[in-house]
Amino acid sequence: MVEGSSLEAPSVEVPRRSSLRLRILFLIFIVALPLSAERMLALLSDRRELIVGVEDDVRDLTRRATLAQSEGVTRARTVLDVVSRNAAHLLQEPAACVRFVTRLVNEVAGIQGIFIASPEGDVRCAHVALAMGVDLSDRPYFQEAMRSEDIYMTDMLVSRVSGRNSVFLLRAERGAGGEPVALVGVVLDLQWLSRIAAGSAVESGVVVEVVGEGGTVLVRYPALSEVVEHRFPDHPLTRAVLAADEGVVTLPGFDGKSRVHAFSRFPGLGLRVVVGSDTDRVLAPIDRKILTTAAAHFVALACFLLLSWVAAEQMVIAPIARLTRAVSAVGRGETQRVKDIGVREFTPLVRAVDDMAQRLSQRNSELRTINGRLASLARTDGLTGLANRRTFDVQFSQDWVRARTEGIPLTLVMLDVDHFKAFNDTFGHMAGDEALRSVARILAAATAGTSHLVARYGGEEFIVLIIGGDARAGIAFAEDVRRLLVDLAISHPGAPRRRLTASFGIASTVPTPEGNPDALVAASDAALYEAKRTGRDRVVVQVNGTHEERSHPG
């Protein structure tokens, strides 16, 4: 019992030293943090009040901007109502109709054009001669407007007449029986809306925008070419303003700058007025004050923590650091044992790490062996022992880049065993597999001692990549393999020549920056198809887009 007591005393010392350090740190925190937190919360409260004030200001600006913009849109809707009610009568006198709509365009601010089309989509009255006779029947907005019972507003589109981005207000006028008699369209004057937006942005740092239903920015002040008349359907601000009729959000604008945005919808239309205020200008002074105060408190807190840390460094941190370096050295394989740290409490851990290091060394050796085998299996076709399709694709891409850099040719020889399905049906799949292995052995022998890559491309297809050799080298190689396969004389009663044969397709090129490696594979495949189409057991090469037969059984 005495011995047990003497052993417990040292084990308690380190926790007490550690616990004392933690208690000191805790006391520093409970003294310093409440003071810092109170000051920071006060500053954050001031900041929040400023943000609320900015939101109220932006909301008020949005109401005023919406009223200003509504004036122009209301004029356009009023003109649309007037022309719609008289559309049938106006179309009976085209000349008078043209004079009437031209006068409206010239006298009513906020509209850029007016047109009246027949139910079939033929424009019969317009303020400009170029619009007369234009067929709108194939336009989606025409079809939507003809189906709509109310005013239909288009998203921004390119006008066939002016060639400029435009927005139309459309209404299908209907007869007593509900049948359409005319389609009336009013073109909104986006420049006039822009001038109204400019008059609404009375404060510095304020941005006024008019956004369409599809997320198109129709108007912006100050104007920004990369934003105005561009669509932002997936922008966070677009999703926010289209989700409700009005509201306030703090999001990046369409130009990427963060603002407080207030938005409001035009009654009966898919237009939104969005007003954004740059909060950085208002919040920058208090943000700097918050950062300065926080920095001062954190510096003072850091000084207290540093003093406490230095006191515990030599007693706790240094031994742990030495142990960590020793264990890391074992983990990196630099040593098989952990050196004695000089701390009795670490002795069991040191022994456990030493034991674990020995077992890990043995396991790592086994894993390296297994990984080597797996890497080989991943690169090799399991049936033939040749490279597989994946290995070929990787090597082909690398050799294509190298050949393009060095200006040397690449040649592909693709071969397919003739009537192989009939061979399998006659002799069975095991015999078919053995036949494929025989073909693979011929190809491996033919490429022995060369830099050629031979791979099983799939099923009974094989492919050979010849680096630095042109089409003549591919022809010579293919003819040798074809003759070797004939000499092998594998019986195939289902084939016309009563023996197993193969067809060959060859394509060659010198890669260029504009070239495509897939095109070379497609060319060799096309040549192979031509060889099979013209009788099999032959070599066909593609030259300048045409096929030339180089050998056949006669």
Which secondary structure elements does this structure contain, and how are they paired or packed?
Layout: H1 2-85, H2 87-92, H3 94-107, E1 111-117, E2 123-126, H4 140-147, E3 152-153, E4 157-158, E5 165-166, E6 168-174, E7 180-188, H5 190-200, E8 206-211, E9 217-221, H6 236-242, E10 246-252, E11 258-265, E12 272-277, H7 279-331, H8 347-379, H9 389-406, E13 410-417, H10 420-427, H11 429-447, E14 453-458, E15 461-467, H12 471-488, E16 502-509, H13 517-533, E17 539-543, E18 546-551
Parallel strand pairs: 16-17
Antiparallel strand pairs: 1-2, 1-7, 3-6, 4-5, 6-7, 8-9, 8-12, 10-11, 11-12, 13-15, 13-16, 14-15, 17-18
Would you write up a description of this structure?
The structure is a single chain. By secondary structure, the protein is an alpha+beta fold. 53% of the residues lie in helices and 19% in strands. The protein is built from 13 helices and 18 strands. The strands form 4 sheets. A 6-stranded mixed β-sheet has the order 14-15-13-16-17-18, with helices on both faces. It is flat. The N and C termini lie far apart (104 Å).
